[in-house]
Amino acid sequence: YGKNTIKFLRLHKEGKKHIVKEVEVCTHLRLTSAQEYLDGNNSLVVPTDTIKNIVLVLAKKNGIQTIEQFAIDICKHFMTTFFQVVYVKTYVQEAPWQRLHENGIPHIHAFISVPDGIRFCEAEQCRNGPLVLSAGIKDLKLMKTTQSGFEGFYKNEHTTLPERNDRILCGELFCKWSYGECKDFDFDCIWNKIRECIIEAFAGPPDCGEYSASYQKTINSIQMHILSQVSQVQVIEAILNNVFYNVLDMKNLGLTNDKEVLIPVETPYGSCACTLGRK
């Protein structure tokens, strides 16, 4: 049991410069006994209101250097404070605020929300067990307008999809990776590097791109690139929800539409998922 969607903004001041972290936290506990479920005995239950207040107090006292470290702090607090807690799991996601710049000069206290992927992390710990940490990015929408196709697929009497060797590839990506033994990692640096790897593998070289034979192949290319470039990542899960575009038939308007006006297909949409790890 626990508390979901604990939302708050943490403001840190360094002289005139302001630093913000807006986060959403979910924290769940498992206790030594299930007596609150079986017998209605609440003597070991840490109220969810207490859980919420602890998260807020930790944010006040420790600050939020990175959301990964904040999740670790939460897990450690519940493990060291409550004898009856045998397992704690904390999920933290960060709102995408970026500092405003004017003529290349960073503003000291103004920010803009840039929806180019939501950063999140998850920490789990059992009593007398290692802390397991994972992180990720979600709601990252990517598109390339060529260098994508889908051909040679299995066909039977129910197949109506035509083969294509030149199409728009668009999708919303969810990516979650796990770390090995957590050492003194630079979590900001790692997250930014992985985001760069995702974009590089999806798009290919800027002057020519790279052909994608399928959404599945694109997912695998992203995962392989991350594992080759970021040694701290042990296992990576990726889900790509596809967004399809159909070329609009404009013959009745007396026009030839050479893939210049397209209509998005909202539902149903396809989805591809893959988990890849090191040996």
UniProtKB/TrEMBL annotation:
Location of this chain's protein in the cell: Peroxisome
Gene Ontology terms describing biological process: purine nucleobase catabolic process; urate catabolic process
Catalytic activity: urate + O2 + H2O = 5-hydroxyisourate + H2O2
Family: Belongs to the uricase family.
Enzyme superclass (EC): oxidoreductase
Gene field: Uox
Residues that bind O2: T48, N242
Keyword annotations of the record: Oxidoreductase, Peroxisome, Purine metabolism
Protein name as it appears in the record: Uricase
Organism of derivation: Bucco capensis (collared puffbird)
